[in-house]
UniProtKB/TrEMBL annotation, chain A:
Stored InterPro entries: AhpC/TSA, Thioredoxin-like_sf, Thioredoxin_domain, Thioredoxin_ResA/DsbE_sf
Keywords per UniProt: Signal
Species name: candidate division WOR-3 bacterium
Taxonomy of the source species: Bacteria, Bacteria division WOR-3
Keyword Signal: yes
Positions in coiled-coil regions: none
Domain Thioredoxin: start-end pairs: 26-170
PROSITE patterns, per the entry: THIOREDOXIN_2 (PS51352)
Protein name in the entry: TlpA family protein disulfide reductase
Residues making up the signal peptide according to the UniProt record: 1-19
């Protein structure tokens, strides 16, 4: 039994080794699983429909998770500066059903302007195999998970912003059309 | 069992070799390794999940393996189980065979869930059909058996081991909506029948009926849920009726201000009485304390959150829960303030928590705690410094003495973080009294932890030292955590 357990341990280390980052042009990104959930604004939001408008940063959080709230607070000014360029942030609450009202009032009192979705049954949390909160994924418009961020401490938002900038156009959508037409005229 | 585990590991190992773009394979693995200083005993635990998706089909495989070192006894012994599910989910419906989690309403009739942080896995195994009807309405049908796995006394137990063959049949209609935009009503109803293996009486039955109503007008939400339980008394027969539960919530969510009020009254709705329940009604106590999980409870809670001006955030809540005859009671007051100036890279938090309990913890008649706490975070380029501190005054009256205990507990945590991947934490907890059985007669608990994000998908944590333990709760389920001295290591991987 001990030998078998040791063997399993080694195999798990092998899995860790497989999960290493490689060169960007050889990476095959995993696909994000589509889902539909209600929001705190009484709308129904589908991931695939948001991806048509720009990349999505999907963060799993709940009320007791202090670091989750720190991250969502820290990203607010970054979101405000980049939303015009197409960035969308989903704060996906995995609080239990009885805390739904508390989530809505908390989010409104915080003045968060993200899409805050309610996954009280934990279905999407289960699909994404969330073990630690916060866990966040940056999903590009092809539906691929291009960046994963697990945990949060103050200062991480700078690195997260750098990742956002890799997948956002350099100009706002209407400005982009203007600059493209200017280039065509040249 | 070994072969299944090996097969799962191989599947995980070839994930990155997959070239089929329609087949999506993801997974996670959590390994933990504990060494107890007292007797060098070891706990080893591994939980691996693999999810396969192909078009409208999905399959999930999971293996849980808990292996304590010998000698084993009735309490401390290995636990291993294998979970699976197969689902087909086109647009209009979903059918699933295997393990799943399901909650009806807010949990007065049925509540199953996975709480990883609290190590509580309460799941169903059977068949579930969900029909997606017009107006965002879902109809759920299920037939399943419960498995309730809970971690306590440093080991895992299946809490319903005596009743693992009880059959559950349920039907729920949720979110039938009338109205549109920001003014609407949602209606739901649910039913659960429990056939208990323990009760061989021919006419034995237990049924729970529930209904819920939610009204929304702009920022105001009102939610009401009621449930009742009919059945026969276990073993002796005869009607078991007049069991009910009500849960009411009113909330107002305004920009910069949130208000919540909740009220509950449970009388015999928690079922069955004992160490596990098929349902778990909500508790208003934010720390998760409940008295008997829906058997005999009445209480309320009020909460408010506000951002009066930009760098300041305030929270306050008051909640009370007691039995109908007030023989047991818990009262909680929480206040928090957070100041995060734009011009400085710091966050300052000041808080206060008060908890007064009567006949909540085993062996304790009364326990009152008053706890101010402070948290300061400062960032200098890639370096993070965080100091957390709390001071708790305790008044405790055990059952077996008339002499009250007055003492204090204190704790400090200093955290240093560098760059993206490294966090070092040093902590120390102290109790002024050394004659407390609850803390194994110890007074001081120093601890050090390193958390290393090896890469985006792997996190390693190693913790060395002591933990005070104590009474801890989540969502109405509580346990007593024994003090720990030794080493804890965990590796969490995603792929």
């Amino acid at each position: 039994m001990k030998k078998f357990a040791f063997f399993i341990l080694l195999l798990n280390l092998g899995i860790v080794a497989f999960a290493q980052e490689t060169k960007t042009d050889t990476i095959k990104y995993p696909k994000a699983i589509n889902f539909t959930l209600p929001s705190t604004e009484n709308k129904t939001i589908t991931l695939d429909s948001l991806l048509k408008n720009g990349p999505v940063y999907l963060e799993f959080w709940d009320l007791p998770c202090k670091n989750c709230i720190k991250e969502l607070d820290a990203l607010m000014p970054i979101y405000d500066s980049l939303k015009e360029r197409g960035l969308q942030i989903i704060a996906l609450s995995v609080d239990k059903p009885a805390d739904e009202a508390k989530v809505k009032t908390f989010v409104k009192s915080k003045k968060w302007r993200y899409y805050v979705l309610l996954d009280s049954k934990g279905k999407v949390k289960d699909l994404y195999q969330i073990k630690i909160k916060p866990t966040a994924y940056l999903i590009n418009q092809k539906g691929e998970i291009v960046f994963t961020h697990i945990g949060f401490k103050q200062g991480d938002e700078k690195r997260i912003k750098d990742e956002f900038l890799k997948y956002l156009p350099k100009h706002k959508p209407c400005e982009q059309e203007k600059s493209e037409s200017e280039e065509k005229e040249k | 069992m070994k072969h299944i585990l090996l097969l799962l590991q191989i599947v995980c190992g070839i994930v990155y070799a997959q070239g089929n773009s329609e087949l999506n394979i993801t997974g996670s693995n959590r390994q933990e390794f504990w060494v107890f200083k007292k007797d060098y005993a070891v706990n080893w635990e591994d939980k691996i999940n693999v999810l396969l998706e192909y078009r409208n089909f999905s399959g999930k495989l999971g293996v849980f393996w808990f292996e304590p070192s010998k000698p084993w006894d009735e309490k401390r012994k290995p636990l291993r189980y294998f979970d699976y599910s197969l689902a087909y989910a086109p647009e209009k419906f979903e059918i699933l065979l295997g393990n799943f989690y399901e909650t009806f309403g807010q949990g007065l009739v049925l509540r199953t869930y996975l709480d990883e942080d609290f190590r509580h896995d309460k799941s169903l195994a059977g068949l579930r059909l969900i029909g997606h009807l017009p107006f965002n309405t879902d109809l759920i049908l299920l037939g399943a058996k419960l498995r309730d796995v809970f971690f306590q006394e440093n080991t895992y137990k299946i809490m319903n081991i005596q009743d693992s063959s009880d059959q559950l049949y349920g039907i729920a209609l949720s979110n039938l909506r009338f109205g549109s935009g920001n003014a609407f009503i949602k209606v739901g109803g649910n039913y659960l029948r429990v056939n208990r293996n323990q009760d061989p009486t021919p006419k034995a039955f237990n049924e729970l009926f529930g209904a819920n109503l939610k009204g929304t007008i702009g920022p105001i939400d009102l939610y009401a849920e009621g449930a009742t339980r009919f059945g026969t008394k276990l073993g002796i027969g005869g009607p078991d009726r007049d069991n009910y539960g009500y849960y009411l919530v009113g909330s107002g969510a305004f920009t910069g201000l949130g208000l919540v009020f909740e009220y509950l009254d449970y009388n015999g709705i928690g079922f069955p009485e004992g160490v596990y329940h098929y349902n778990d009604p909500p508790t208003p106590i934010r720390s998760g304390v409940a008295i008997n999980r829906g058997v005999d409870e009445i209480g309320f809670g009020i909460g408010a959150n506000a951002t009066p001006f930009s760098p300041v955030f305030l929270e306050a809540s008051f909640a009370q829960l007691n039995t109908h005859n007030k023989s047991s009671q818990v009262q909680e007051i929480i206040g928090k303030s957070k100041y995060e100036p734009v011009e400085l890279p710091m966050i300052f938090q000041l808080g206060f928590e008060s908890m007064h309990q009567k006949k909540i913890e085993a062996g304790t008649l009364k326990r009152n705690t008053e706890k101010p706490n402070i948290d300061l975070t400062y960032t200098i380029e890639d370096h993070l410094f965080e100091l957390e501190s709390e001071f708790t005054w305790v008044y405790e009256l055990p059952f077996d003495t008339t002499e009250a205990l007055r003492y204090y507990e204190t704790g400090f945590t200093l955290t240093y973080g560098y760059g993206e991947g490294l966090i070092l934490t040093f902590g120390w907890q102290f109790c002024s009294k050394d004659s407390l059985k609850r803390y194994d007669y110890m007074k001081s608990w120093p601890v050090a932890e390193i958390a290393w994000s090896i890469n985006q998908n792997n996190i390693l944590r190693v913790r060395i030292g002591s933990e005070r333990g104590g009474y801890t709760c989540s969502g109405g389920v509580c346990r007593y955590e024994a003090p720990f001295t030794g080493i804890k290591a965990s590796l969490i991987s995603k792929f």
